[in-house]
């Protein structure tokens, strides 16, 4: 079988939140990301689906959430994405620590990892997140969103995800099949269990790293955990080839599912983490102009015909705006 086109890296990461307003306030105002899409969980239309991105919804920048308000707190453990890391420009971590102090964000001491400086913190639901200082190239594909934070410190898409796995070897082999290259191993630091962290790099510049750590720490899905991680397969042809490659490893990927802003294939990898393959198109401007992204509740496909019923079941939320924040000062 022909080798699939290597994935450029992470497409999006989808997580579980609690209170939707709290989630909006933190990811838009505190972290300065753009709400590029305000929609619903297409498998559970009784809950929102929020998409937080850079200014243009570039692939590799989307942190998305299902706010299930009545769910209990989860626990990160084996078979999960244990941390999601974002890129920030070199020299910006002082700004972020000051901002976290101002907004009451829980954060830990910086650590050095593979020659980069990492600032670990948690969102209001306890989701483990990190900021990693990188040199952002002039031709970087991401476009910073600057409504709440200055351009020179703004988040510039994903850096990496860390997988906690009981037996890393089969997953490491799968990552190599997907086009990731093993680039290094070092002793694990901080609150991560296991002796060694192994890093794999994809071919792109955004969301290019996956780190793998061995652990037998038990976990459970709930608030403050990652639901799934999606990897870029830019075209339908790329996705179909990757699907076949995954299938050849003995895994059971779904058929392609239309998610309105991208087309998806899902499968659980060997360690239990839910992986998704996602196309680049049609993108978030398929149903809203770029300037108006996130401005309204978008109900894709057949859900539009149920708008009144769906809206009645959703909690009212207000998207943070910089002018509103200034008026409150």
From TrEMBL:
<dbReference type="Pfam" id="PF00903">
    <property type="entry name" value="Glyoxalase"/>
</dbReference>
<protein>
    <submittedName>
        <fullName>Putative ring-cleaving dioxygenase MhqO</fullName>
    </submittedName>
</protein>
<feature type="domain" description="VOC">
    <location>
        <begin position="157"/>
        <end position="280"/>
    </location>
</feature>
<feature type="domain" description="VOC">
    <location>
        <begin position="9"/>
        <end position="134"/>
    </location>
</feature>
<dbReference type="InterPro" id="IPR052537">
    <property type="entry name" value="Extradiol_RC_dioxygenase"/>
</dbReference>
<dbReference type="InterPro" id="IPR037523">
    <property type="entry name" value="VOC_core"/>
</dbReference>
<dbReference type="InterPro" id="IPR029068">
    <property type="entry name" value="Glyas_Bleomycin-R_OHBP_Dase"/>
</dbReference>
<dbReference type="InterPro" id="IPR004360">
    <property type="entry name" value="Glyas_Fos-R_dOase_dom"/>
</dbReference>
<feature type="region of interest" description="Disordered">
    <location>
        <begin position="310"/>
        <end position="329"/>
    </location>
</feature>
<keyword id="KW-0223">Dioxygenase</keyword>
<keyword id="KW-0560">Oxidoreductase</keyword>
<dbReference type="GO" id="GO:0051213">
    <property type="term" value="F:dioxygenase activity"/>
</dbReference>
